Amino acid sequence: MKILAIESSCDETAASVVEDGRTVLSSVINSQVVEHQQYGGVVPELASRRHTENICDVVEQSLKDANMTLQDVDAIAVTYAPGLIGALLVGVNYAKGLALASKKPLIPVHHIRGHIAANYLSHPELKPPFLCLVASGGHSHIIWVEDYTTFQIIGQTRDDAAGEAFDKAARTLGFPYPGGIYLDAAAQQGKRGTYHLPKPKVHGSDYDFSFSGLKTAVINMVHNAKQKGQEIEVNDLAADFQGTVAEILTTHLMQAACDYHAKKIVVAGGVSANSGLRSALTEACKEQGYELYLPKLSLCGDNAAMIGSQAYYEYLAGVRAGMDLNGVASIPVNVSYR
What we know:
- By secondary structure, this protein is α/β, with parallel strands linked by helices.
- It is built from ten helices and ten strands.
- The protein starts with a strand and ends in a 22-residue tail after the last helix.
């Protein structure tokens, strides 16, 4: 089964053709990063306008790369939630138009489910059940994936997501947007142990995260140093910050894996590209005997291939949408489309 998938939840306009949930026939991404850099983050209205301008070309290029026409695909899939509402609506309405014109089934896909499914493309042998850490700019979750469309949220952030903390700490250290990749590069040049940073815990929950205090500690440390005329060793602070985030994520995930008797651990989302997190999880899983699945770096960020992969399993589960499909800014990953 060949599915044309569309993703426009934030600042990437993407389209892909995926076969049977496991094979990518094409994947096209138009990124707006350079344009949003001057503002230090994504401007929602600007993102929506650029999606409107780019979506036709991106979809056409995706079909061309797959050597297919719209009539050759079996279904249309689209990210309908969560995300920037204006950005989502561009993709949703375009997908509805394609589905109506071609008389193809329309499959709505949850963005976070898509990130998890990126691992099916990276590891064709992977099957549920498994424990998954989702870490991105807007989400930090520990999820028990019972099957392809059944999810249980075990833990989640109570404030900032890990990726958000990375970007805000990076901006404080003087790195451009998106700061996470620059902070990662700096951390690889620094040494740990120079700066003491807190490891916030959520009272009464071993699996939930809190990154706001850690982010604020870095901001205060840098601002206080500037006020006193002191120099900050940027690479060392980057290394300590990245290492602390990786330790927090890894510790919580290992505790959940033990308590839920998991055998397979999967990582998803933009932060899964972080070298410090990948290293910490690889070492921890090796020590404790878990199978670790990490997505290819090209599939860590937002893309439509992951949406096409998850769409296949949603289709098999009977999920369909009509012309009343709407974008939803926020909805839990364990809530199925109805």
